[in-house]
């Protein structure tokens, strides 16, 4: 059975901070993670008076499983989320990590008033066809070998709770979800999509020496194509910048909101 339009699912969400406060932020996690993995960034923003919402994306955490995992389907799900349940209100800021950055890009391009600004944390904007099998193998290998102790050994800058939450999130994701997310998106090329977004977009890229997904070449091309785009490389931080350097993510969030 096929469908011409994405069929959204109702996502499980976590919330921090005053229920009706502004600014309001939406935090989108990466592949094999969950809403709980934002715990430090969410807590720090809530302590500054923000209302923070983080969903489990489809196929992750406590959210429903589905047959399809295209970026359009992921985006349809998050477009159903609104600050304080009011669809007229847009998010003051959306933060997306890795897959979450790609989802935020697609969603913001589809509905221009959905987010006043975007902070993308080492987003995956492109997956080449000849890289798909290797990426799937790498991700599935991680699913079979993820424990808190091992994660802390590989990521010494993480808090112990980061390792615990990542391991718990990974146990809830199936190989099917991983493979379909990579294979269902036949053309994973989002540079032009991101360049067309009207809202300000700031990217935090990981240190290239530590396995960055977002490259300086992508950043330079986007900076030339979109006046409201800029990026910065976080020296010493790996792909999960929100775990390696949560203070930097919080500081960039506050600074980006102040500029809008």
From TrEMBL:
Keywords: Hydrolase. It comes from Herbiconiux gentiana. Residues 26-251 form the AB hydrolase-1 domain. One of its GO terms (molecular function) is hydrolase activity. InterPro entries: AB_hydrolase_1, AB_hydrolase_fold, AB_hydrolase_sf. Pfam families: Abhydrolase_6 (PF12697). This is Alpha/beta hydrolase. SUPFAM superfamilies: alpha/beta-Hydrolases. The keyword Lipoprotein does not apply. The lineage of its organism: Bacteria, Bacillati, Actinomycetota, Actinomycetes, Micrococcales.
